[in-house]
Amino acid sequence: LCLLGSLQATRALMVAAIIVGLIGLFVAVIGMKCMKCMEDDQVKKMRMAIFGGVIFIVSGMAALVATSWYGNRVARAFYDPYTPVNTRFEFGSALFIGWAAASLAILGGAFLCCSCPHRETSYPASRGYPKNAPSTGKDYV
C-alpha cells in the first residue's frame, strides 16, 4: 500500500478506463440496429450508438494515458544511472497489451461514431441526364 502516487494514479486510471469501457459497451449495444430496444425511434437509436462510440473513445484515451504514463516511468528508471542494474524494469507484455487495447477501443469508438448515415443536404436533387427514346435503327441518316 506504500506505492508512489504516480503508480496509484495509473492504476486508478486503468480501473476507470475499464469501468467506462463497460458502460460504453452497454450503451453501444442499445444503439445497435439488431437490438429490439428503442426500435420505434431510429434517431435516438443512432444517437445511442454515437454516444457509445464517444464513451469508448474516452475509455481508450484513459487506458492510453495510463499505459503510456507507466511506460514513461519505466523508461526513465531504466536510463537513470543511479538505478541499480538488478532493479531495472523493462517493457513487459502488459504494456503492449494495454497499448493494443487502448488503440482498439479508440478505433472501435471511431467506427461507432462514423457508422451513422449522413444527413440530407439542402442542395436541390440532381436531375441526371435525359433518357433517349430507344433507337429503331433508321435514324442514322
Automatic annotation (TrEMBL):
Entry keyword RNA-binding: no
Keywords (A to Z) from UniProt: Cell junction, Cell membrane, Membrane, Tight junction, Transmembrane, Transmembrane helix
Location(s) in or outside the cell: Cell junction, Tight junction; Cell membrane
One Gene Ontology CC term in the entry: bicellular tight junction
Gene3D superfamilies found in the cross-reference section: 1.20.140.150
First-listed, main subcellular location of the protein, grouped into a coarse class: other
One function term, GO molecular function aspect: structural molecule activity
Spans through the membrane: 12-30, 50-71, 91-114
Source domain of life: Eukaryota
Membrane protein topology class: Multi-pass membrane protein
Disordered: annotated segments: 122-141
Family in the record: Belongs to the claudin family.
Full protein name: Claudin-1
The organism of origin for this protein: Pterocles gutturalis
